Amino acid sequence: xxxxVQQLDRKNLKEEDFFVAGELIRKGKLVAFPTETVYxxxxxxxxxxxxxxxxxxxxxxxxxPLIVHIADIFSLEKLTKEIPEVAYRLAEHFWxxxxxxxLKKSDIVPYEITGGLETVxxxxxxxxxxxxxxxxxxxxxxxxxxxxxxxxxxxxxxxVIEDLxxxxxxxxxxxxxTIGLESTILDLTGxxxxxxxxxxxxxxxxxxxxxxxxxxxxxxxxxxKLTVVAKAPGMKYKHYAPKADLTIYEGSSKAVIxxxxxEAKQQELQKRKVGILATDETISEYLYGIVKSVGTRENExxxxxxxxxxxxxxxxxxxxxxxAESFDGMxxxxxxxxxxxxxAGYQIIKV
Length: 351
Ligand code: TXA
Ligand code: MG
Description:
By secondary structure, the chain is an alpha/beta fold. Helix content is about 35%, strand content about 20%. Strands 1, 2, 3, 4, 5, 6, 7, 8, 9, 10, 11 and 12 form a 12-stranded mixed sheet that branches. Strands 15-14-16-13-17 form a 5-stranded parallel sheet, sandwiched between helices.
């Protein structure tokens, strides 16, 4: 199959830009599109045959449910039932935006996209391209992140081409995603709102609306030998993994730099290609390997938006080992570390 890439001009978006993409969705085809978090791989959520193609293209296990993307609040009422009052308050505060709410599904949501669950994840993205695309399709759009299963999520059309060229019908190219990490997932089907996946919207922000909040045990897990079962089925799979062996170093900035320099030197002596994931603040302190800054700690969105891209760049260069600084303690530390720990297979060294 030929994958058509359609360039979009964010300063001048027109309804007709989305005619072809909308028509493809109605025909049961796959269209990748930008959102403010990451690129999504979209299909008609109520067409089980179309969603099957998503699993095939990504190589995704079929028990891993898809998030349904909507462009207006009425769609929430069509897709779910027994909506608690708190869901409306959350929608008012955080939609459109990077929050996915898990609610009881209505009968129109096929089990093929929920991995057989009675619940469904709903998100209203804020990216105008995503919104215009959903409206043009006249459907609800089921979309996982538009990467091959297991690889870092895609934050540019080029990344989608890398993973899915020839496997999907179209890519809407809207440039780089602004946030760069997937949405916060909040389960509202239990007594206490529960964060299943940390994201750009923090627990503290959510708690201001929900009053009470908890993390799913699997989110806080930092141990490779995962003994707790994740409530978001996708969280149990190998994820975000670059091809190289990644280790995170945690400690004072000086101790981390010294330890990474020592390790990187050893690796280079053994003729291994080393990558170092640094920050603007520390990049000049590293003496060995290919050093890349993920952004500045002074402005965290520079870090969230580049994390996956840097991991992909290391893959392209073909480094064999990566050493990364820790991002604990930042406002968005939960979200960043959740991805980085998975990418590292939970290898973290305290110095
Ligand atoms: O920002 C995002 O959320 C992006 C963009 C494209 O919207 N999408 C995304 O989708 O990250 P995906 O499929 O890569 O991750 C969705 C996660 C998976 O871990 C899945 O298991 C979980 O959400 N999930 C989906 N529906 C669920 C449900 N009903 N109950 C529990 N977890 C669910
Ligand atoms: Mg994903």
